[in-house]
Design brief:
Layout: E1 2-5, E2 10-16, E3 19-27, E4 32-36, H1 49-55, E5 59-64, H2 80-94, E6 100-104, H3 106-117, E7 124-128, H4 139-148, H5 157-165, H6 169-176, E8 179-182, E9 185-188, H7 192-204, H8 208-213, E10 218-223, H9 230-239, E11 244-248, H10 255-258, H11 260-274
Parallel strand pairs: 4-5, 4-6, 6-7, 7-10, 10-11
Antiparallel strand pairs: 1-2, 2-3, 3-5, 8-9
Helix pairs in contact: 2-3, 4-7, 5-6
């Protein structure tokens, strides 16, 4: 593993199966916590939340999942199993001890599958706008088409924030932070085709068996205007009656960007109530 320091965090890089993986290690003392971003996202989405969690007494690491951010952009294997294997490799490489797994959207799905594959690994699981229900057929293709339709290069950060935020500047800022300067302006640090392939497995099946295999306390955080509907949440509770859940008022799918302080408060309260 290689590392380099910047303001507030250290970038660490490891290679698993020929794929370079990058993460931001925020340091801190106390229980280990691993943060996982969503599809087409990047680990910098946690930059507002990570120091709050660190200062509350956690050691915090945020991973750029394969195909995203500073990690390899074109990995051949983008299966759900590959994403999980990356998490396990990072946990081993950094010596994380029973980390709290916190993931948003596809990152939450990665966290869920990691907890299912290694029930003894995490001390807890926090799913932000994520669940085990399968996506509707064609979802991966529709999202791929949406990503390919972005008017890139964006001529300025302001233009990117306005387009990607869709009326929510704080969300636009979070997405714009994932762009890089290139010919003519700002471009994504991902390939839409890779993103589409990364989501394909979710469009083919649901993951309820994996949800029942999770053996640690779990918290589901829903946006008030998010993508996890009442039916999916009700089934999650039915299969795991001990599930903790809450909805963050005034948020949508990007609740971690819209109200990072409220999300940290929810995580800390969850830890207190479950003695994590």
């Amino acid at each position: 593993m290689t590392s380099s320091s910047t303001d507030g965090w250290t970038e660490r890089t490891l290679v698993r199966d020929g794929v370079r993986l990058s993460c931001r290690d925020w340091g801190g003392s106390g229980p280990d916590t691993l943060l996982l971003h969503g599809l087409a996202g990047h680990c910098g989405e946690w930059d507002a939340l990570a120091p709050l969690l660190r200062d509350a007494g956690h050691r915090v690491v945020a991973l750029d999942q394969r195909g995203h951010g500073a990690s390899d952009r074109h990995p051949e294997d983008v299966s759900r199993a590959a994403y999980v294997a990356d998490v396990l490799a990072l946990v081993a490489e950094l010596g994380l001890v029973r980390p709290l797994l916190v993931g948003q959207s596809l990152g939450g799905h990665t966290a869920l599958l990691t907890a299912a594959a290694r029930p003894a690994l995490p001390r807890g699981l926090v799913l932000v706008e994520a669940g085990p229900g399968g996506a509707e057929p064609g979802t991966a293709e529709r999202i791929g088409d949406w990503l390919r339709a972005w008017p890139v290069p964006f001529p300025s950060r302001e233009a990117a924030v306005a387009y990607l935020g869709d009326g929510k500047p704080v969300v636009g800022e979070g997405w714009a932070d994932g762009l890089e300067a290139g010919d003519g302006g700002l471009r994504p640090r991902f390939d839409p085709d890779v993103m589409e392939r990364s989501l394909a497995e979710n469009s083919r099946r649901a993951f309820w068996a994996e949800w029942t295999a999770v053996d640690c306390p779990a918290l589901a955080v829903l946006g008030q205007d998010g993508i996890i509907d009442g039916g999916e949440y009700a089934e999650m509770v039915r299969l795991r009656p001990g599930l903790h859940g809450l909805s963050l008022p005034g948020t949508g799918h990007d609740a971690h960007l819209e109200r990072p302080g409220a999300l940290v408060a929810a995580i800390l309260d969850f830890e207190r109530r479950t003695d994590l």
